[in-house]
Design goal:
Largest sheet of chain B: 5 strands, antiparallel
Strand content of chain A: under 5%
Shape of chain A: globular
Helix content of chain A: 55-70%
Number of helices of chain A: 10
Largest interface: A-B, 30 and 29 residues
Oligomer: heterodimer
Number of strands of chain A: 2
Helix content of chain B: 25-40%
Radius of gyration of chain A: 21 Å
Number of helices of chain B: 6
């Protein structure tokens, strides 16, 4: 009993005895890494499906990024709280249940109190549940780490995901329909000179190619990402 | 307790399911009233939009009572079924029935002496149901306004049918040809009139990348309107007799 006491005994719910600043270097890395070195989309190649589906315009891409961030942060925290209770054999099912019920709860509350937002989100609700990044982070991180770290990891990965979504959506909306946030940015004069919107940008294959170009640029800049062999 | 034992796994799963199920059931049933109220007001708001009255959801109900003078529940032969409340007819269930058993809701509006007929629509898009409302002017031929909505069309493509710029293309188009035959409105990818200046061509410009959703809109308009023709012709005859 005495030997156990000296170990990391939880003081209160999730605060550990081991003292670490809230934003220590390690914790900051949890937020920062997914933006570049360990980006869920361009490096881990997760969440590609939703990145193709909803990057035709900037606005839905941003709404999706925010919703994924909320769901990831919350489900990471819940799984991390339960990590010492979850039976190993059914952990994937538990993760799925947590994510799915979180999403449904949010959806129900929005439908009652913020009906317009819920209409905007309707299509994304299903996509969030199936987003591999959410499950991936629960499995790879939240099951083995403390609550605060899991929260940062969720926010960081969702930010990395959202960042790519917004970059891709920016180029697709700009080149595909000449607009940003639904407002025309390419002046009429340019169209009169013979410029035509590239309709191909609106179709999913171009999202994949845009992500591909992004990966190329990222690897050219960030040497850490280049495989040895 | 051993976390890998069967007993613990069963216990954990049972508790988890109970907690999750009761939380979700409690949330869903306690919010049901508010949600249904939102849907009802949105329906009124949509009907008002088609006849050119823009309003927010909170004021929809009072304006609806002011402008909608009749809610009719029609049979396929064009007679009025007074037993059924038109507003509560759920089209999603109704279109699955045989035509003879279906009831077709029709909303008649009176805006400062002008009469409009609002026809609810429902059909299939690419992924799931699409629906909407189409308002006809007094001639029962010219479109006054249209509103569309959908359950799960692709955001940025098929989902654009909810946008004003798409719905405005329908305004002033005609649903009948010169011989009085119903042709509906074709959401066309080969439209020769992209500025939509020709209002007699029964065509509006489709959305790039939303072919199936557009075809769904075309089919939905033609299918639904056809059921209202018997009532419209009956009404025309009785009006002619009264005059």
């Amino acid at each position: 009993m005495n030997a156990k006491k000296s170990q990391n005994k939880p003081l209160f719910f999730f605060v550990n005895e081991e003292k670490e600043a809230l934003f220590s270097k390690k914790n900051r890395a949890l937020l920062k890494d997914p933006l570049d070195d360990n980006n869920p989309i361009t490096v881990q190649v997760l969440g590609i499906c939703s990145a193709l589906a909803i990057t035709v315009q900037l606005k839905p891409a941003i709404v999706m990024s925010i919703s994924v961030m909320a769901v990831m942060a919350a489900s990471n925290v819940i799984i991390s709280l339960l990590r010492n209770l979850i039976p190993n054999r059914i952990r994937i099912i538990v993760q799925l249940v947590v994510v799915a019920s979180m999403v449904i709860l949010v959806d129900q509350v929005l439908r009652a109190y913020a009906y317009d937002v819920s209409k905007e989100l309707s299509i994304f609700i299903g996509l969030i549940i199936t987003n591999c990044i959410v499950m991936g982070r629960l499995e790879a991180f939240a099951l083995g780490n403390g609550v605060w770290k899991s929260f940062l990891d969720g926010v960081g990965n969702a930010a990395g995901y959202g960042f790519i979504l917004i970059v891709v959506a920016f180029f697709r909306e700009l080149l595909g329909s000449g607009k940003l946030f639904g407002l025309q940015v390419i002046p009429d004069a340019v169209y009169e000179m013979g410029y035509v919107n590239n309709g191909l940008m609106l179709l999913s294959p171009m999202a994949l190619i845009t992500v591909g170009i992004f990966i190329w640029l990222q690897r050219a800049r960030n040497r850490k990402l280049i495989e040895k062999n | 307790m051993n976390r890998d034992s069967n007993g613990y796994t069963f216990l954990f799963a049972t508790i988890m399911v109970l907690v999750v199920a009761s939380t979700l059931a409690f949330t869903a049933s306690s919010l049901k009233g508010l949600q249904a109220e939102n849907v009802r007001k949105e329906k009124m708001q949509n009907i008002l939009t088609t006849i050119g009255i823009e309003t927010d959801r909170d004021q929809a109900e009072s304006l609806y009572k002011q402008y909608i003078v009749e809610e009719l529940s029609l049979t396929h032969t064009g007679s009025v079924d007074t037993q059924t409340d038109a507003f509560t007819i759920a089209l999603n269930n109704e279109i699955k029935k045989p035509v003879a058993e279906q009831r077709f809701p029709l909303y008649v509006a009176d805006v400062e002496g002008k009469k409009f007929y609002v026809v609810p629509l429902r059909g299939a898009g690419l992924w799931d149901a699409i629906w909407g409302y189409l308002a006809l002017k007094e001639d029962k031929n010219t479109i006054q306004g249209a509103v569309f909505d959908h359950k799960g069309e692709t955001a940025g493509l098929g989902a654009e049918i909810t946008q004003k710029w798409f719905q405005e293309r329908f305004v002033d188009e005609k649903i009948m040809d010169q011989n009085g035959q119903l042709v509906g409105i074709n959401v066309s990818k080969t439209n020769n009139d992209p500025t939509n200046s020709d209002k007699e061509d029964h065509e509006i410009d489709a959305i790039s990348g939303a072919t199936i959703t557009g075809d769904g809109v075309t089919a939905m308009i033609a299918e639904r309107l056809a059921h209202y023709l018997p009532y419209f012709s009956k009404e025309d005859t009785s009006l002619a007799l009264n005059n």
